[in-house]
Amino acid sequence: MSTQEARQTRHTVKLGTTGPEVFPLGLGCMGMSGMYGATNDDESLRTVHAATERGVTLLDTGDFYGMGHNELLVGRAIAGRRERVQLSVKFGALRGPDGSWLGMDLRPAAVKNFATYSLKRLGVDVIDIYRPARLDPNVPIEETIGAMSDLVKAGYVRHIGLSEVGAETLRRAHRVHPIADLQIEYSLASRGPESNIFPTLRELGISATLYGVLSRGLLTGSKPTGAGDFRAHLPRFSGEHREKNEDVVGSLHRFAQERRMSPAQLAIAWVLARQPGFVPVIGMKNVAQLDDALGALNRPLTSEDVAALDSLGAVSGGRYGPEQLRLLDSERR
């Protein structure tokens, strides 16, 4: 997709009642720090620069992606173009030197500590949207949001977001400080938020930034590249689930081919049609993937297309393993 074509499609989407105006697709930067196999910093920098040149404004990162590597990378990428981007930053996850996951820490003092280091690594004075990556079961959400509200008042954060929390937590947090958006997984393969979470968002005037739109590459036919690839440990990519999903993915690819779209464009266009006003955040590691994803903005689906895709069949296996799903507030019913 050319820069001129991107500008022709450019309109903005407001994140909730109080949040910023953003381009209708966001750039997820996690995959630039090794979560899905080998990466190349130079290519990552080219991708971020190309995204901003094509009009993309929202960059999503996390302080625990690559144990700080991702924030440092994004900081390099936005140097000299800070005014053209909005930074969405997740925090709170604890990691060991071996890359292991050690839980969450959302105590007020920890919130402010995490923010201090993120500001330094990113090389900025303010974070546009700051969000805990998950709920900390040991800290009331009111205390966490209260500390984040202090950061807003002090000018270090512009807007508060959340990630992977359920409807009741949304309500409790929103009573303390306006929430701009909820980041949550949503795709043809993961439609759980439709039943309770999305109606709650719309009731409260909160938007959503949607990740996992390509189901971590499952819907495009991508496969784990080795043990270091996070996806190798996810149910949908292993065992009998993987074999069953090949049929669904094959049907999706044939559907896309008939419409002269790539599978990624089809998956993104379905989300845009299903949830207008919400913003897909697409993980892209190179310029070719970026241009392919942006092409979805010029290929809207008809209601008949959406209905046909809905009937393709369910993807087999959970989006995370059972142990991880039990820890997600968004999965509680």
Task: Name its key features.
333 residues; TIM Barrel; 12 helices; NAD(P)_OxRdtase_dom_sf
Short description:
This protein is 39% helix and 17% strand.
CATH architecture term: Alpha-Beta Barrel
Main beta sheet:
8 strands, parallel, barrel
Number of helices: 12
**Radius of gyration over alpha carbons?**
19 Å
Strand order of the largest sheet: 3-4-5-8-9-10-11-12
Measured by DSSP, the beta-strand proportion falls in: 15-25%
Distance between the termini: 41 Å
CATH domain class name: Alpha Beta
Number of domains: 1
How many strands?
A: 12
Q: Report mean pLDDT, rounded to a whole number.
A: 90
Protein name: Aldo/keto reductase
Organism: Myxococcus llanfairpwllgwyngyllgogerychwyrndrobwllllantysiliogogogochensis
GO molecular function: oxidoreductase activity
GO cellular component, one term: cytoplasm
Question: Could you outline the blueprint of secondary structure elements for this entry?
Answer:
Blueprint: H1 3-9, E1 13-14, E2 21-22, E3 26-28, H2 41-53, E4 58-62, H3 69-78, E5 86-91, E6 93-95, E7 101-104, H4 108-122, E8 127-132, H5 141-153, E9 157-163, H6 167-176, E10 179-185, H7 197-204, E11 207-211, H8 239-258, H9 263-274, E12 279-283, H10 287-294, H11 303-310, H12 322-327
Parallel strand pairs: 3-4, 3-12, 4-5, 5-8, 8-9, 9-10, 10-11, 11-12
Antiparallel strand pairs: 1-2, 6-7
Helix pairs in contact: 2-3, 4-5, 5-6, 6-7
Provide structural commentary.
The protein is of the alpha/beta class. The protein has one domain (3-326): NADP-dependent oxidoreductase domain (TIM Barrel), CATH 3.20.20. It has twelve helices and twelve strands. It has helices spanning 3-9, 41-53, 69-78, 108-122, 141-153, 167-176, 197-204, 239-258, 263-274, 287-294, 303-310, 322-327; strands at residues 13-14, 21-22, 26-28, 58-62, 86-91, 93-95, 101-104, 127-132, 157-163, 179-185, 207-211, 279-283. The strands form three sheets. It has an eight-stranded parallel barrel, surrounded by six helices. A two-stranded antiparallel sheet has the order 1-2. Helix 6 links the parallel strand 9 and strand 10. Helix 2 (41-53) packs across helix 3 (69-78) and helix 6 (167-176) runs parallel beside helix 7 (197-204). The mean pLDDT is 90.
